Each structure stands twice: as C-alpha cells, then as structure tokens.
Amino acid sequence: MACAVSTEPTPFDLDHPWQVDPRVSMRPEPFGALLYHFGTRRLSFLKNQRVLAVVRSLADHPSARAACAAAGVTEAELPAYTRALAALADSHMISERTPA
Amino acid sequence: MTLTQHAAAGARSAPGRLTDLFQLGLDAPICLTWELTYACNLSCVHCLSSSGRRDPRELTTRECKQVIDTLQRMQVFYVNIGGGEPTVRPDFWELVDYATAHHVGVKFSTNGVKITPDVAARLAASDYVDVQISLDGATADVNDAVRGAGSYATAMRAMANLSAAGFRGFKLSVVMTRQNIPQLDAFKAIADRFGAQLRLTRLRPSGRGADVWHDLHPTADQQRSLHAWLVAHGEQVLTGDSFFHLSAYGSALPGLNLCGAGRVVCLIDPVGDVYACPFAIHENFLAGNVRDDGGFETVWRSSRLFASLRTPDTGGACRSCGFYDSCRGGCMAAKFFTGLPLDGPDPECVQGYGEAALAALAALAAVGASAAPRPSVDHSHRTVPVTIGRRRPPQRGCDESPLAGFAAP
User: Fold this and answer.
1) Does residue A81 belong to the interface with chain B, where contact is any CB pair within 8 Å?
2) Cis omega (within 30 of 0) for bond into A72
3) Which residues pair with B289 in a beta bridge?
C-alpha cells in the first residue's frame, strides 16, 4: 500500500469509548468509505468494509476493543486496526466519548 | 481538496492503490466546482471561465436548490462555488444557507468585493462555510496588472475584515505566474498576518488564460524552485492537487496527485452545463446539463464522456517515460488549450518534453498548419463601448445611403 504513515501517531487507547466526530460526514464506497471533516476540512478514507463496520459502530460499544471484536477482528489483526484507529484519532475523524 | 494520507487500514485486503481506484471514478464526486454566475466586477486577464457578463440562461434560485438537493442525496461533501464573482448574485447568501442546511459544505471563491465587516462576522460564525480570497500579486503592482486596478486593495480589505471577525484559516488563493513566483514568501507572510492559509494553484491556458499563458506561465527554473518551496512547506500550504505534474521531479507533493477530471471532480457552469473540470470549458469536455432528464446525477453516472475518462489510460507518447507513474501525463486542459495531444506530455512537463512539443507545434502554426482550440464559451466584458440612442455622424456618404456618391453615367 502506497499510503505511508507520515507522522508517528499518538498511542491509542483501545479500552476507551470512542465515536465518529460529530462534524464528520461518512460516505460508503465499494472499497470502504470516504470521510470528510467539516471542521478541519480534510478528507480521509477507510480501506475496507471491516474497518468501516468498526468505525461505524464505535459509538454503540463501551470501548474500541469491543467494537473491533463485534466486527470480527481477530487478535492477530488487532494491531493493524489499532494503528488505523490511531491515525483516525490523530486527524480528529474519531474522538473520545465521555462514558455515560 | 486535502487528503490526509494516513488513515489506511487492512492493507492486505485493499484491491489496489487508492489513486488507482479513484482513476476509475466514484459514484459521486468528492467535491465539485459550481460557478454560479458569469457576471463579474473584474476582468482578470487570465480568467479561466472568460467571465464578465451575466448569461441570461443562468440557473434560477429554484433550479440551484434542486441541484443542492441532488448533491445532498449523492452525499457530495462540499462544493467550491465560484464564477464570475458569485457574491454578486442577489440570492447568493440564500443559496449558501440552503446548501449548509442540507449538509453540503460550501467553500466559495471571491475577489472580496462583498466581504464587509458584517458579512465577515456572519461567515466567521459558520463551520460549514469556507472562504477563498483571490490575490495574484503580493504587491499591488503585480496583482493589479493581472486582476485590474484597485483589486489588490479590495482583497486586502476583505482579508482584514475576515481576520478582525475572528475567521481563522480562510484561504488566500494565488494563481502562480512568472511575475509572482518570486513573491512566494511574501504571500505566506500575508496569509500568516491575517491568520489565513495559503493556497497556490497552477495557471491554466483556459478561458482568457489562453491569450496570456505564453507570457504568464512560470519558466522551467521557476517551476523547479516552486516545487522545492512546496516540498519544504508540506501540508501548511494547499495546492488543490494542481501541481501534480511537478511530481516528476522525484518527490510527490501532499494530495492525491492525479487528474480528477470526471473521476472525482467536475464543473457545473452558471447555465447548468456539466464539464469534466473547471479548466475545461469547451464542447469537447461537455458531459451534459443539470436541466436534462435525470439531472446532475444522471450526467455524473451515465455520460459517455465521463465513462471514457474513467477508463484506464494507456499513457500514449508518455508511456516510455520513467516518470509517467508520478505525473500521469499531467493536466488534460493544459494540453488541450495549448494544442497538444491529450495522450502526450503536459506543456510544462518537467522533463522538457512539453517544451519540445510546443516548439514543434509553433513551427506548424507558422505555416498555418495548426492552431490551438479556442474556448467555446465567452462572457468577457465587451471592450468596445456601445452607444445607445445617439447616432454617430456618418463618416462617409455610403453610411447613410448605399447610392451616395453614385452618379449614373
């Protein structure tokens, strides 16, 4: 994959509750989804259906780890998904939710 | 548009590079340019849309709202509104409010003529509206030579108003020319002073730009220094992906680095005509009209022109060049309006192939064997004054009577 990680993302806490930022619009595409943040005016993308399922359901789970498990992400795959979520958090596409 | 490069996940299941997917087109554009009017208070020498006079067939307020409804349904994230000078449309703010209320973000380009302190305060209050002020010289002399007398002062006043209203991160938009490339640092300083972000775009030989391109486009040396400057400033400076032909120097610039025409972007012009890109207002790149059956959605999804743009291109004459993967042959509109074949090098190809092709073309033109195509739409202000209601005295007798001075033998 040509899309290089440009900066080292900050550590991502899988056990915290997360959500898609309210100012983000998400559009499903055959390859995954496009995301656009109206605050930062930046575009981003999700590269497959599984990561889309994880991101979409973040708000319904007590933690990002639980959202990954519910979408069928295995232990072996978890590091790759953690990196993707960290990148999304870094670009403010997803944000931490205050536990209810 | 700005694309963050780092949110990729699940690399193994990806069917290819994202740019390859984009090359084949999307179900809806990511963003599109919508020129609301050809009317403009200025007459910039390089105007890409040959604007000046309003077209009487302009879309009505109701028709514009229907287009916005369609964009909402298609989930187009935002529109780049331009013109002409879009703010001179009496329903401009009504349309901006309608779009944002329907979750279609708006970024509009203006020369600043209507950005009063009141308007600036209103704009500063919205997350869904972004403003782009056009300025083509960091000094009044360089700017006004291209955009007209007083236009530098107008733009500076608009930026001061936006800044005073607390609008952070609006865009200062500059078309790069031979005359203003030495002012890159000065532009950055102006943007910084007003809390704006600098956005640099490429001069295209489109619209009236075709008439001045040979005198205004950057030299080869200037292109190299521009590339170095852009690489040094990274994501701080926006380019709207317009300098992807410079990637053939070796280091790619931030962004998608591909020609998005008809694939991820397009243009809707003031009368509803849909073109492949804002720089291609010519019948060869006309895909349809939003007034046609099925509206914009059908044009985007079913036009034959867009279908052909979405098929993988072969690279043509550029295929054997080692840099083809970086620049993909450059800008379609730049080639077309300088008379170069679409499957050959960009006129500003950094490997020098474009210059050679232009020289060959000039030799042909000198013997009348070739001419670059002209834009097919022109709304420029008439430069010859028209006198109404007062007859000029006849210069010659035959202006009055075809038989004047005729004496039968």
Assistant:
1) yes
2) no
3) B273
- Inter-residue contact B6 to B18 (CB < 8 Å): no
Q: Do B132 and B170 meet the contact criterion of CB atoms below 8 Å apart? A: yes
Tokens 């990561």 -> residue: A51
Tokens of A95: 């944000």
DSSP state of B130: E
Amino acid (one-letter) located at A87? A
Rounded-to-integer distance, Cα B94 and Cα B85, Å? 16
Is the separation of the CB atoms in A62 and A71 below 8 Å?
Answer: no
Chain B residues whose C-beta is within 8 A of a chain A C-beta are 1-11, 13-15, 17-19, 21, 26-28, 30, 75, 77-78, 103, 105, 107, 127-128, 130
Q: What are the pLDDT tens digits along chain B (409 aa)?
A: 444 433 444 333 334 566 777 777 888 998 899 999 999 999 999 999 999 999 999 999 999 999 999 999 999 999 999 999 999 999 999 999 999 999 999 999 999 999 999 999 999 998 889 999 999 999 999 999 999 999 999 999 999 999 999 999 999 999 999 999 999 999 999 999 999 999 999 999 999 999 999 999 999 999 999 999 999 998 899 998 899 999 889 887 877 778 889 999 999 999 999 999 999 999 999 999 999 999 999 999 999 999 999 988 777 889 889 888 888 899 999 999 999 999 999 999 999 999 999 999 988 888 887 678 887 789 999 765 555 555 555 555 555 565 555 565 5
Burial track A68-94 (b if 16+ CB lie within 10 A, e otherwise): beebebeeeeeebbbbbbbbbbbbbbb
Indicate the SS3 state at residue B26. coil
Q: What ipTM goes with this model?
A: 0.79
